[in-house]
Design goal:
This protein is of the alpha/beta class. The chain is built from twelve helices and five strands. A five-stranded parallel beta sheet has the order 2-3-1-4-5, sandwiched between helices. The radius of gyration is 20 Å and the shape is globular.
């Protein structure tokens, strides 16, 4: 996947050889420290109540979107965090333009919103299954670019993550769900049908990334065969993003400086 490798290098998430070949354990203390720092910065963002952060998580089935959310935000104040999962549109949603339901869920001031799947499903699933024409797909790329630019210009920092797993790794994870009765609730027979279109989905992701990558809404391709490496890479990226926002506490209220509580 040449395009995936190019974006990995461009965005600074080059996979280290040892991580590509094994589930090597990252420094637990370092990872915990990163999560603590993320928590502190998220509290500043929430206190400031001016800017917003949107994290878009995309990936094939079993790529670890849910696990990434659980791990990454395990120490964050839930008051300033909202996770949104997008499934097939309802009848009402389908009666509107494809971005209508997305716009309703973007983060408000001081909030981090995490999209578990997103508006990109409408240029991925719809394209692979032939639900839209190539011309319509091109129009949607342009509409997505305009939409994300509007969000960025109105104070939303956008980070888009593609959790990239191999076909063999997906096979193993699907089989684990079948073999473990406690994971049967996670298994969807539809995943097997979609697996048939593996190459088509990889091509659709490559094109979507190439068409919508921008400085104000960058794509990061995260190698995700190793869950530990995935968590470390995403934590590091989120921490760098929050630091880059130059967050700070709101200025003190002068009326409270001499207040004595009795």
């Amino acid at each position: 996947m040449k395009a995936i490798d190019e974006f990995r290098a461009r965005r600074g998430l080059r996979l280290r050889d040892k991580d590509a070949q094994s589930d090597s354990k990252p420094d637990r203390e370092l990872l915990d420290k990163m999560l603590d720092d993320i928590s502190d910065l998220q509290e500043m963002l929430y206190a400031e109540r001016i800017r917003k952060l949107l994290i878009v998580l995309q990936g094939t089935d079993t790529s670890g979107k849910d696990g990434t959310v659980r791990h990454l935000f395990s120490k964050i104040n839930p008051m300033g965090l909202r996770a949104v999962g997008f499934r097939a549109p309802t009848e009402i949603e389908a009666a509107h333009d494809f971005l209508w339901r997305i716009h309703r869920e973007v983060p408000k001031a001081g909030e981090i919103a995490v999209f578990n799947r997103s508006h990109y499903e409408d240029v991925l699933v719809t394209r692979v299954l032939g639900m839209i024409t190539p011309q319509e797909c091109k129009r949607r790329y342009a509409q997505i670019r305009d939409f994300e630019r509007m969000l960025a210009e109105s104070g939303t920092t956008i980070v888009k993550l593609f959790l990239h797993i191999s076909k063999d790794e997906q096979k193993e994870r699907l089989q684990e769900r079948v073999d473990d009765p406690h994971k049967h609730w996670k298994f969807d027979p539809e995943d097997l049908k979609q697996r048939v279109f593996w190459k088509d989905y990889q091509k659709a992701y490559e094109d979507a990334i190439a068409e919508t990558d921008a400085d104000h809404a960058p794509w990061y391709v995260v190698p995700a065969d190793s869950k530990r490496y995935r968590n470390e890479a995403v934590a590091r990226l989120l921490l760098e993003t929050l630091r880059g926002m130059r967050l700070d506490w709101p200025p003190p209220d002068k009326r409270l400086l001499k207040l004595k509580v009795r």
